[in-house]
Amino acid sequence: MDEELLLPRIIAGIEGGGDDESYYHELVTDLKSLLDTDDDEILNRFYGSLSSVASSFLRCFSAAMDSPVQSGRLAILASDAYVCLLLSTNCPVFTFFSPVAFLSLLGSVRRYLKRRHRDDSGSAASQGNKKKRGRSSKNNARNLGHEDGDEVEEGGFDAKLLFRVLERLGSVLSFVHLDRFPDSLKSLVQTVSEIPLLALEHSGALNYDRLMEMCGRILGGVLNSDHGDTATTAAEISKSLTPLLLMGKHQARSFALGFVSRKIMGLAKGNSELKKIVSNLPKFLVHKAPEKAEPRGFAVEAILEIVKAMEVEDQSEFVEFVMKMGQGKSSLRILAVDLIPLLISSLENPLGTVSSENGVEDSWGLGCLNALVQRCSDSNALIRARALSNLAQVVGFLSGDERSRSILKQALGFTGETSEGKGIVTELLKKRCVDEKAAARRAALLLVTKLTSLLGGCFDVSILKTMATSCSDPLISIRKAAISALSEAFRICTDEIVTTEWLHSVPRMIMDNETSMQEECENVFHELVLDRISRAGNALSPDNDLDRDIESLFPEGVLVLLKELCNSEVSPWVKKICGSLGKKKRLEPRVALALQSIIKESESLWLRRSMSINKWTAPAGAWFLLSEVSVYLPKSVEWEFLHHHWQLLDKNDLQDGQGDEEGVECNSSTWAGDRVCLLQTISNVSLQLPPEPAADLADNLLKKIEKFNLHSAEVDAHVKALKTLCLKKACTSEESDGLVKKWVEQVLSKASKVTEKYIEGVSSNNHSFATPVTLGSRRSKRLGSVSKKLSKVVTAVYTIGSCLIMYPSADTTKIVPLLHTVITSGNSDSKLKNKLPQANVCLKQKAPPLYSQSWLTMAKICLADGKLAKRYIPLFAQELEKSDCAALRNNLVVAMTDFCVHYTAMIECYIPKITKRLRDPCEVVRRQTFILLSRLLQRDYVKWRGVLFLRFLLSLVDESEKIRRLADFLFGNILKVKAPLLAYNSFVEAIYVLNDCHAHTGHSNPDPKQSRTKDQAFSIRGNDESSRSKRMQIYITLLKQMAPEHLLATFAKLCAEVLAAASDGMLNIEDVTGQSVLQDAFQILACKEIRLSVSRGSSSETVEMEEEGGDSNAAVAKGRAITQAVRKGLIQNTIPIFIELKRLLESKNSPLTGSLMDCLRVLLKDYKNEIEEMLVADKQLQKELVYDMQKHEAAKARSMANQGAACGTSRRSGEPEPEPAAAASEENVRDSGLESRVVSAAADAVAAKAARSVLREVNGGAATPPLSAMSVPKLRSSRGGSQSGRPSADVLESLRRRPTFMSDDEN
Predict the structure, then answer these.
(1) Taking every annotated instance into account, which residue ranges of this chain make up the domain Condensin complex subunit 1 C-terminal (predicted)?
(2) Which pTM value belongs to this model?
């Protein structure tokens, strides 16, 4: 009954028509109810009745499927009803199938999967909703509930309905062939390809795997030949799946990759046309790959998956394509660089086959390797960095087996004569390890690490030094990479060169500001030094082979390692590392046991060879390292071992100087160093010693101290050890203080007596005018005795200082007058005439060691007595200034910096005198002064004010490479962080000071002669090439420390305080120093470091952003803003000043006019199109600039043409001449002269053409506004009158004189 009523209702509804949503909804509902019936008779009658109104039916259902309301639910219901109609029994499919209706069906599926928002629905839809709301039934009310336009909730999405539509759609395609409807086929492919992306928002409400399976079934179905050409369809599917292939890791991407690599690739095996389509798909993806780092990585992975599923010949073709990509534009080059390592690691047999006759054959991997090496020198910093890191990845992958390593070494050139670590990548790595971009430097160090493993540590020395330099890089990541690379080389190779470079570079990182760097330094030191020594010492076994060398007895280069540990440049860092490891309880007892075993075995081997024990010395560095680790491992050191070697070394000390054997004399300094370390070790373990041996040792040490015959290095060790033993002997702290006070005063008393006796002896016996001594005479013996007395008194004075440092509260009333007598000897002092022993001779000349040592000891006393320091600090400053002994000046610098820490207020006024030592003739004094002052500055005991900063600048161009390196690190790392504005604030003043210029009114001095003499040492005067280059090096270093906004401000300050000052007459340009200042300003304004282009401000940042996958739009916008600011500054400030200054220089015929023109030409190089706008005030200057450009182009063209002519002449001269006659020679001469004239004419023509093009660019714009209409500063003219009426002859004459302006003869 109901079905009978539905049939006429549907037909009447179709014939009656309607355009509101309720009409469509009732029609869809009625049709769905009718199709659900099982009565074939009713359906047949329905088909018959519907056939007559088929067009109207299709139009109505297409409109229903296009309905935009209800979040697409009405449309998807209409689609479901439509596919049900097509699948129903005995349905005339070709009558009811329409491409328009099919497209509407696909559109309804897409819209149903999209989330809808308030502004998605149009006004017509809203009106339809209102109509439907008034006459809707219960079913309508149930289905319509989202007219407010909010997002559809997951609960409102019917996944079963979607699956039903897709499943029935696939069934329809089995008998509805789309070969006649290419647009429908294309739309179907695009829609099904979009479904995985659209369904992501509903992934929680549907079975995503089932959805992917349905999409794959539909796409696989349309690949049937019934739907058209399979190759064409596959191409369309591949194109539509491209967004899925390039997206991030998701099921949709996996679906697309699986469909392409399995379904399409499977069909392509028997179809040549389809195979061609498939082979071109990776190339298509290459051109569609995004530029951002992370999406590009996903694209590379997708390309690789597809290539892996291709056949071998297709893979080879794609590899060739990738190698050609390496020569393309930057986006293709970076893709090629990313693809090559994945291709080599994923495809089979990258190194080909090996033939005994032809070597390696069919090795596409070597071609890729060569392409990757070429990209390591790419002009793009990002590509360079990626190529280096990927090359490191390739080297690591191909180092897996012996055959691959051999081929790889051959490919990289590490064979034959270049086997000593030199290959085609050696020069490349030298450049890349110091690349201007951090990413490239980091990748280069990674490559070095991989190559070190490949070559077994056999690397070029220059690369090792480059890695060592990288340990001081400003960036933490670079320093970590350098430590890793050097440590890998040291881990593999124990060669002396590698060991030395590692120890001189890595341990010093314990002083790095970053905690992570300190921890990394401790870890590698523990692994590569302490563990290696432990293994070597614990692996020793008795060996009776007397012919065995001691180096072979200790493997892994342990002797070289120990020797370098006690190097003066390494030992401070070793002490710091051992202290840090000890505090963290990471030092193991086996280290101390191994060191004792090494010393014992060395002594045993020496004795087994029946050699004198007096000539034996322990392996260098063993005692030093034992003394450092024993602080935290006192129980691991045996007292018998220490006692035995103390007696041995003490015996050697007694015999030192008595024997005539050369070996004993050579070993005396070694024994002294060993005794110092041994005493340090005894002090460390003294709390573990038995009481009686400790007391005996203390008595022995005191006796040795009181003899005053120790080496100066031993005195401190003896004093420290004696104090430690007193702590062991005493029961309480008061008792230990009493013991220390007792022996200290005893030693001081004896030392003062020795000193006083020597002074009296020297004063009574003046041998200043003694005749030359005959060898063997009594006087010679007497002078030898005097020398011993001098040595004794020097040791006594040094011992006084050591005791006072150990016990500052000791009585010095008898000592100070004696030391005062020594340091003031030769000077009359009436106040002390009857109170002190007077020296009638100048001890500075008579006994220089005593004089120097007395200053050092007095400094130690002053550190313990503030009142005494206040009296003697002026004397220290005076002696520092006038002393001619480099060693004394060095000690005084140390003393003054110590005073600065203890008495900051008293020493502040003497800082300028200390800074004078930065220009000391002795390199050691200069380096010591620089280091000590730098430490004071970092700890804020001294401030960067006054002349201090300006005097530090000259260390950047010091004669010593070590000082220059320290200065670069100070200004580039420490100062840039601690005082970022210092370079900017002092830049202009530095120009005047470095040129020693006092011609500026702001730098005048009431006493110019005194000032000139005072400051000349800290200036680099002169216009010679060497002086100018040194000053420019300083300027460039300061510019590199400035932020972009400070560079812009510096540019303006130079124009205002130098150029404008010169044009206004405040800077005397007739003075030589004034000319130097002005010329330096021109060079600075023209240098690339001060130019603020977009790349200058944001290139490195952009590279780092690209590496991290970030967005560089902000950096680009910042660069653009800076560029606009520069242009504005040039227009408003620079150009008017240049115009006025040019007129002044021309009026004085100054040689600086040429420098001004060169500077202006460089500044305007990047602003050709704005020349007219910038030079509106001086058309003549504009023409002269164009003329300068013409001359430059002419010279360049003439040079290139002459080179070509020279090549042609050489080729002709190489050809055999039929008749070598003189006439032929003359003809050749005439030809060459004619050729040179032709070349010159051609060059002039090229230059004229270039100049005309510039003129056209300059004069092609609109009329320029007058200068008065521009917002520019008005400058006072240096001479009256207008310049517009100048004769052209003067201009030409000025231009003719220009080539001589670069000469410095007149200066």
Answers:
(1) 888-1064
(2) 0.70
